[in-house]
């Protein structure tokens, strides 16, 4: 049977996404391969589909224990036998699952890396017929990765010893070129077996809001997007609690998630969000690593994440169904200072701290850049020749652009005259001409650039320095006391070879300007009334099956039903996301709902 036919029959999709078929073919050929795809790019199909074909067991190693149940439930819902073994499984249940796996009835087994280095478990695992080893979230193996866990490297050699003949597949969504090279070395993946599909998410609109009243903005945004699922990320537990209580007082259906809550409360809040019993959840960045909810329409960052990798992974939770989604970063420089404080207090060695500071500097550049936001991220991950997205807040910014070359030359000249050995705070105070940096042993008051911005405020000057750094005219040292130096681009500005342009200051924020800028209806034309009826039917089935609604059908599949209006089983199979098992389980019910709606419209 052709791979496309299996894709349709087992998973309900007519065509492969970029990179999927190539990786699947490598796996079926018994090779070692690596896939680097964006969050929501369809990585799991790359091992799930081969598992339905291969004679033996597919072993999926993942650090995301809380995600395993969702993955297994979703596979079983599609009629593909799967199970998981991790620390959450009681011993009697574990024994039963192991006997079931030994019988050959299970096609996919999900385990945590810790299980691989458990001698007793590994001995049992060695007795199984394993056709494929898939390592999900593979970036945790690389010391260059944002979630590096050195203990996970211990599992690599035992895994290599399991079987000389089985295929290998490593998958990750956030890998810089350094991480990619490190993973290829660790896992012995040849360059020709690495498939990179690009990190662009063309359904995701990135947005940055600067200088806003954050709590006010969040309330107005959530209120203007009713009945849509959203995640609000905050850096500290107290911020999560503050936002949660504020939204709840203003009649928002909201939950919260952070390490200060009991295990049962965290579990219940996550379940409420997955099952659409609440629309919004406020969380620290630990949330979301264990969910695969497809219909999240927006992600708001109340505080700035510490790395581009973490940020893009978190915004990637929006729009996994391929429908329009939005990610808004509420930026204030104070957030960066908080990250700097925690880096300094970190127990890591100097090299580790330096790596974090460099990543934080890149995050600060992103927050201040006036270039296309998606292009900035793609450039960070090493993608070249990328085009502007045309949908982010910078691409849509229609403020007047003014020439600031003269001011840039003054600021850059000051950096040079100060020996390129100082950070933003000191440079700012010298430019403004503050008394506290004059007449000390540095003798900054003798510089021709001292006080050259005397008519500017410290805040205005600091923002201008941040603008120069964000747009590549200055680079950061990344040390404990970060210093700013001129880049080649900055040198060209001083020499008059290139000009510097900057948009005018942002207009004052007004709460009423938070509009419903994006909605599910924006992606094509279909009957919204029918969509709501099908969504209600999906909820009914979800409660009956004790599954999250998106596991029955995604919003994208419901939308396709509204567009195609199927009336026969053959028509229903032509809907994206409907395979043979979903047809058998839900076809009659949904077809009847569509027919009744059509009859009522006559």
Automatic annotation (TrEMBL):
It catalyses: Couples ATP hydrolysis with the unwinding of duplex DNA by translocating in the 3'-5' direction. PROSITE patterns: HELICASE_ATP_BIND_1, HELICASE_CTER, HRDC. Its cofactor is Mg(2+); Zn(2+). This is DNA helicase RecQ. Its EC number is 5.6.2.4. Residues 214-360 form the Helicase C-terminal domain. Keywords: ATP-binding, DNA damage, DNA recombination, DNA repair, DNA-binding, Helicase, Hydrolase, Isomerase, Metal-binding, Nucleotide-binding, Zinc. GO terms for biological process: DNA recombination; DNA repair; DNA replication; SOS response. It holds the Pfam family RQC. InterPro entries: DEAD/DEAH_box_helicase_dom (IPR011545), DNA_helicase_ATP-dep_RecQ (IPR004589), DNA_helicase_ATP-dep_RecQ_bac (IPR006293), Helicase_ATP-bd (IPR014001), Helicase_C-like (IPR001650), HRDC-like_sf (IPR010997), HRDC_dom (IPR002121), HRDC_dom_sf (IPR044876). The lineage of its organism: Bacteria, Bacillati, Bacillota, Bacilli, Lactobacillales. GO terms for cellular component: bacterial nucleoid; cytoplasm; replisome. It is an enzyme of class 5 (isomerase). Belongs to the helicase family. RecQ subfamily. GO terms for molecular function: 3'-5' DNA helicase activity; ATP binding; DNA binding; four-way junction helicase activity; hydrolase activity; metal ion binding. NCBIfam families: recQ, recQ_fam. SUPFAM superfamilies: HRDC-like (SSF47819), P-loop containing nucleoside triphosphate hydrolases (SSF52540), Winged helix' DNA-binding domain (SSF46785). The keyword Aminoacyl-tRNA synthetase does not apply. Residues 524-602 form the HRDC domain. Residues 24-193 form the Helicase ATP-binding domain.
């Amino acid at each position: 049977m052709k791979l496309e036919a299996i894709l349709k029959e087992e998973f309900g999709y007519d065509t492969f996404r970029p990179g999927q078929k190539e990786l699947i073919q490598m796996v079926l050929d018994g090779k070692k391969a690596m896939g680097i795809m964006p969050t929501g790019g369809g990585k799991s199909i790359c091992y799930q589909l081969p598992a339905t074909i291969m004679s033996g067991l597919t072993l999926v190693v993942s650090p995301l224990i809380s995600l395993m149940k969702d993955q297994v439930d979703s596979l079983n819902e599609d009629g593909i036998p799967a199970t998981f073994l991790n620390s959450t499984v009681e011993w009697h249940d574990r024994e039963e699952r192991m006997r079931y796996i030994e019988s050959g009835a299970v096609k996919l087994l999900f385990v945590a890396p810790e299980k691989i280095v458990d001698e007793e478990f590994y001995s049992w695992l060695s007795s199984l017929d394993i056709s494929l080893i898939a390592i999900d979230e593979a970036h945790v193996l690389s010391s260059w990765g944002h979630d590096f866990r050195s203990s996970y490297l211990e599992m690599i050699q035992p895994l290599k010893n399991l079987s000389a003949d089985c295929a290998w597949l490593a998958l990750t969504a956030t890998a810089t070129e350094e991480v990619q090279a490190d993973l290829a070395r660790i896992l012995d993946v040849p360059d020709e077996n690495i498939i990179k599909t690009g990190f662009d998410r063309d359904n995701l609109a990135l947005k940055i809001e600067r200088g806003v009243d954050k709590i006010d903005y969040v309330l107005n945004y959530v209120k203007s997007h009713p009945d849509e699922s959203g995640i609000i990320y905050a850096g500290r537990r107290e911020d999560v609690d503050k936002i949660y209580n504020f939204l709840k007082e203003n009649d928002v259906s909201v939950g919260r998630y952070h390490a200060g809550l009991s295990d049962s409360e965290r579990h219940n809040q996550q379940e409420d969000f997955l099952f659409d019993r609440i629309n919004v959840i406020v969380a620290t960045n630990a949330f979301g690593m264990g969910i695969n909810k497809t219909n999240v329409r927006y992600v708001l960052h109340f505080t700035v994440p510490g790395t581009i990798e973490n940020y893009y992974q978190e915004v990637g939770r929006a729009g996994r169904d391929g429908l329009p989604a939005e990610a808004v970063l509420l930026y204030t420089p104070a957030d960066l200072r908080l990250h700097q404080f925690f880096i300094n207090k970190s127990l890591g060695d100097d090299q580790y701290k330096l790596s974090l500071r460099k990543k934080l500097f890149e995050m600060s550049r992103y927050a201040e850049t006036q270039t296309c936001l998606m292009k900035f991220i793609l450039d960070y991950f090493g993608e070249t020749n990328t085009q502007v997205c045309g949908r982010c807040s910078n691409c849509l910014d229609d403020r007047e652009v003014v020439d600031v070359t003269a001011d840039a030359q003054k600021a850059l000249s000051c950096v040079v005259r100060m020996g390129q050995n100082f950070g933003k705070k000191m440079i700012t105070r010298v430019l403004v001409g503050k008394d506290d940096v004059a007449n000390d042993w540095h003798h900054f008051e003798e510089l021709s650039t001292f006080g050259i911005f005397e008519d500017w405020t410290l805040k205005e000057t600091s923002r201008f320095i941040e603008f120069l750094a964000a747009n590549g005219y200055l680079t950061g040292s990344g040390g404990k006391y970060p210093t700013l130096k001129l880049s080649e681009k900055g040198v060209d500005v001083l020499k008059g070879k290139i000009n510097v342009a900057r948009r005018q200051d942002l207009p004052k924020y007004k709460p009423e300007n938070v509009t419903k800028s994006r909605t599910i209806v924006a992606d094509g034309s279909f009957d919204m009334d029918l969509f709501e009826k099908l969504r209600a039917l999906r909820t009914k089935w979800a409660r009956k099956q004790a599954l999250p609604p998106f596991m029955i059908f995604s919003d994208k599949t419901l939308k396709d039903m509204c567009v195609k209006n199927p009336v026969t089983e053959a028509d229903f199979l032509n809907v994206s996301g409907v395979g043979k098992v979903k047809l058998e389980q839900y076809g009659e019910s949904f077809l009847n709902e569509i027919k009744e709606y059509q009859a009522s419209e006559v």
